[in-house]
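TOKENISE THE FOLD
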Amino acid sequence: AAPAQAPVAAPAAAPQAPAAKPAAARPAAEDRDVEAVPLNRFRKVAARRLTESKQNAPHFYLNREVDAEALLAFRATLNEALAPAKVSVNDLVVKAVATALREHPEVNVSYTEENLLFHKRVHVGVAVAVPDGLVVPVVKDADRKSVSQIGAETRELAGKARDGKLSVQEMSGGTFSVSNLGMFGVDSFSAVINPPEAAILAVGAVRDEPVVRDGQVVPGKRMAVTLSVDHRACDGATAAKFLARLAELLQNPLLIVA
């Protein structure tokens, strides 16, 4: 028998070229058309808290049109009497909010997993735009202060905010917030709740609009307000009663100082 032949080795596979690596994304900082600006502490905190709010708090919104004719007339009278001091429409709104919260403590609350916290004091945060973001200094015990006191304190806090000199204490402890974009010509908007508060009021510009009075169409002043509410803490009827009382106070501003 013929001798067995040694098995022939299979030809070696041709070496494969290494897979091409995907091109790394160029960092935005290296893009000539993009400037990367590091976030300051205010914007970082705001981003974290507002993201937390929208993710965790189920928002609902109530809208209301307010007749601002009496409010503007009352403000003019106050400013004439207090000159050279001035009060703004927002000062009157903050005072009205504080008064309504005192009368409706079920809105002056915070939600936790185990409890609904009823705040015994009324501390109103006032959103202030600063060059690098947004801060919310707090007017403590706003329901116990006069409109002129609220105005003076708000201006002082806003000045500190723009100078970057607000203390942690001056930005802490709010139980409700007010955000007003009316001075920028914004008619209406919805604000994001500032946790752990249960609600925030967004205030639009005072607009010239025709209104019906005593069956006649006459020139009028209207202002839109929008209440954003954490549905875990308040139901719709509770929030609606609060907003109705707030509108009543704004339309009858003598009740604010009564």
About this structure: DSSP finds five helices and ten strands in the chain. Strands lie at 59-67, 109-111, 116-118, 124-126, 128-130, 133-135, 138-139, 176-180, 199-213, 216-230. The chain has one domain: 41-255.
